[in-house]
Amino acid sequence: MLLPNAFAYIPVDATKNTGGTISKGDRVVLISAKNTDDDEATTADMFFPIGVMGTVSESVIQGYIAIQTEDRVNIDQITYDGREFAVELTHRDDTDELDDDERYDRFIRMKGAVTNLMKKSNAPEWWRNFVSKLDSIEKITAASSLAMNLTPRQKYDVLAIDSERERSRKMEELVMELVEISETNFQSQLDQNKKNQKAYRESAIRHQMEYLQKELDELDPEGVSDIRRLEKRIEESGMNEVARKEAMKALNRMKQDGQNGHEYGTLYDYIDFLTGLPWKSEEPKEIDLEEAEKILDEDHFGLEKVKDRIIQQIAVMNLNRKQYGTILLFVGAPGTGKTSIGQSIAKALGREYVRVSLGGIRDEAEKRGHRRTYIGAMPGRIMDGIHKCGSSNPVMMLDEVDKLYASYNGDPASALLEVLDPEQNSTFTDHYMNVPYDLSRVVFICTANDTDRIPYPLLNRMEIVQFPGYTPVDKMNIARRHLLPKAMDSMGISEKDLAIDDEAMRRIISDYTMEAGVRGLKKRIDTLCRIAAVNLVKGQGEPITVTPDNLRQYMGRKPIRYGRVLPDTRAGIVTGLCWTAGGGDIGFIESTLMPGRGKLIVTGQIGNVMKESIMIAVSLVQNMFPEYSRTFNEMDIHVHAPEGYIKKDGTSAGITVVTAISSLITGRTVAPEIAMTGEVSLRGRVMPVGGIPEKLMAAQRAGVKTVFIPQDNVDDLEDVADEVKEKLEIVPVTYVGEVLERVGIFSD
Ligand code: ADP
């Protein structure tokens, strides 16, 4: 009979009842409370109404009581006196009984399944013995039921089936189900075991490796500690997964290669570089705009427009909390403060500052690094900059982008484009590193002396901020407020030791430097400070006071002879304006006529562009003065352009050449205090040119009174200092004829 394990057993023979304990041979009835948790069940309605009679066959086996079950009974009455139960029972008959063969078949099937399961699941020995001795379908079911997760209700439902055939079918079903469940559990247990085994094996191997590593450490302390140190650094660097894999690959190669292997050093440097990079992302700091403005003003005199533009940029960055779309390109002559203001921007943003000089890069590899296989490979300058500053979001100044040269080794400008493109620079891959690095949080600023040689796609990507150069008054302020105090401070001299009077400073600016910026001025001031320092150290007590009278003693001969307007002139000579490395200067176009056959002779250090421009000028003058056609046919014209023009004023001398030749053939002189700049077309139109602020500054310095500039350059006057504009008559012109009229060549 089914033996539901949750059944209470109640001794039936009251005479043998010994206060709750039972022993072998006792007759009991097994009944179950409807609710198993109910310890308080005392009355018949709290129990299921059908139970099973049984005899205790073995009082206790391993904590179980074995009961030989017999017939089913109806529980008619239960009474409980506070100590013992008494039950009244009637026998309950089965219907539809099984014949012996059927019963046996079922028994064999069930026992086979259970035995098999026990073998697989490594059931304890006693339990297997017990099962092997079971000799009836009832016993096997009873034993299995212990393992079945059935509620008392489910068990009772089986017990209550009167048809023996039906009941035994249900029992078989339950046992088979149990076998099935155990089988699946068993299988998943097996899988789990396999997994565990693999993990155990791995951990054992790892321990073994660590042990061997330690042994190696002792044998070869230096070499192995390299590897352990690098390994630790890789783990701690916070590098991305791709980089980590690449670094581990290199590390494994190092291990295999051994310390004397020829790749060891290269691999070491590579991992050393990778792990030395800042990988952890840094959050941008909240920026106080007023504070930023203060920092910019403290560090740099003037440059109002530049500072305004920078403040706008910072404000946008503050709102976006990321790198802005436009990259600023600072354009101006050397020493105008482009790089040093970059430093102030970093200070204002609370970021690191790093300057990467691109001047002279011919090779894309220099920007992106060489492939690691090159001996002595150096990471590209960009990643090198990041490495040096140790921060992933610095202000990075890319200096001299106009000095990049395209060569057969790839186009460095296009590599730079990739660096600057926010769409691409989050995965910038340096050839040397060979793994992507996120440059998107870097604030890039580029600088250039002029924009002419910057490839268009690169220029297009950037917004130009002009550094127009300083007037003598600006320079005076910069010298007094910044250059001199800084130099004195760095050399440890005080105001008692050195004084430079204002006139002397003015002379230094006008006679000893000729530049748009203040680099030369800084050098001169540094020289004076060094002299004072030597004086101080030698203990020659006397403080130095620099005046115009003793300036030459300290500074040497006046080195600079910049152009001054000529004291007198003759026909064929006109004052032009040119743009030089130092800013601007004046330059005279000279022309003469000599007997010949209408040839044009051009001298001076001039390039092809300038030659063409002179030819255009001659054709134009021929057209404008048909009455002088004989002169053109019977004379040779010689045009000479001075050195000042060579650098880049290829075409901007056009207007000057036209005026000079017109003056030459008409014999009418042009006042030397009149200067001009502008490109001229074949039809005589005056077209815009660069460097207007520098040129006007030079004109004013040279003593020019009137300057003709192209009408289309009028907007540039905004960048010209007021003190320059005040001293010059500036005449914008559209056609070259207007100039000829104003200077008196067209007058009659
Ligand atoms: P650039 O990068 O344009 O060649 P730098 O930034 O190197 O010029 O400037 C040269 C020197 O002149 C630096 O010492 C810088 O501090 C100083 N300087 C330039 N402009 C100013 C300015 N407006 N105020 C104070 N110092 C300046």
Could you explain how this protein is built, in words?
The protein is built from 25 helices and 23 strands. The strands form 6 sheets. The chain has a 7-stranded mixed beta sheet. The protein has a 5-stranded antiparallel beta sheet with strand order 1-2-3-4-5, with no helix packed on it. It binds adenosine-5'-diphosphate (ADP).
Number of domains: 5
Number of helices: 25
* Distance, first to last CA: 142 Å
Helix content: 40-55%
Largest sheet: 7 strands, mixed
The CATH topology of the largest domain is what? Rossmann fold
- Would you tell me the overall average pLDDT? 79
Brief summary of the model shown:
The chain has 25 helices and 23 strands. With 748 residues, the chain is α/β, with parallel strands linked by helices. The protein has 5 domains: 7-91, LON domain-like (Archaeosine Trna-guanine Transglycosylase, Chain: A, domain 4); 225-276, no CATH class; 289-467, Rossmann fold (3-Layer(aba) Sandwich); 472-555, Helicase, Ruva Protein, domain 3, CATH 1.10.8.60; 573-743, Ribosomal Protein S5, domain 2 (2-Layer Sandwich).
Summary keywords:
23 strands; 748 residues; Archaeosine Trna-guanine Transglycosylase, Chain: A, domain 4; Rossmann fold; 45% helix; single chain; binds adenosine-5'-diphosphate; 25 helices; disordered N terminus
